[in-house]
Amino acid sequence: MNIKVDIWSDVMCPFCYIGKRKFEKALEHYKYKNQVEVEWHSYQLDPDLNPPPGVNVYDYLAQRKRITQQESVRMHEQVTKLAASVGLIYNFDKAVVANSFNAHRLLQLAKTKGLGSQMEEELFKAYFTEGKNTGDPTILHELGINVGLLENELKEMLNGNAYTEKIKEDEARAREIGLRGVPFFLLDNKYVISGAQDSSLFLQALNQLSAEKGITTI
Fold it and tell me: How far apart are CA 41 and CA 104, in angstroms?
């Protein structure tokens, strides 16, 4: 008897990576963690993004939020500190702003091989820590190989439009359940946790579900 956790996120969302770490910390303290099934879902914060070459994250956010560049830098500094509090290193100075659609297609391919969580981690690390262009097919190919995807599968996916419908399905379901932002956690189709909340909240929800479902063995 498993507990299903559906998570919607975007590779460009700094709070999604932080939320992932906080959820994982909760799992470490959850007695029945081996009975938790996690599925990552696609959600694009800016599906129409088509940045000019060389635009940095500070200018991008300033333009999108209609704030000053100085305010954008300050916001990113605060997020960097929050990420560091859960052991993550954010290097916004070298982050490459890119449309995340193809990164989501890569995630969808990885999910078919049971590698969704590994792929999500690799994409987050590439964007926030390593400053890699997650819109570049060459980079996506490299990241896919890193998690164990096959060369021919990656080439076929990157050279075509595979998994586009899967992204649309994820986003359609997000609309159905009233999702307004990411990260968004749906636990067993019953409990909702929105945002990068404290690990204790995730653990509380998991314990409540295991009690309700009568889970007593690992």
Answer: 9
Whether the Cβ atoms of residue 170 and residue 43 lie closer than 8 Å to each other = yes
Look up tokens 């309700």; give the residue.
Answer: 212
Pairwise CA distance, residues 3 & 65, whole Å: 37
β-bridge mates for residue 36, sequence order: 3
> Do 119 and 156 meet the contact criterion of CB atoms below 8 Å apart?
no
Question: What is the CATH T-level fold of the domain 3-213, as seen in this structure?
Answer: Glutaredoxin (3.40.30)
Determine the Cα–Cα distance for residues 178 and 199; give it in Å rounded to an integer. Answer: 23
- Model pLDDT for residues 111-135, shown as the tens digit of each residue: 999 999 999 999 999 999 999 999 9
As given in the structure block, the two tokens for residue 24 are 């994982």
Say if CB 4 and CB 37 are below 8 A apart: yes
The pTM assigned to this predicted structure is: 0.95
Residue 41 phi/psi, 5-degree rounding, is: -120, 155
Q: What are the boundaries of each domain within the chain?
A: 3-213
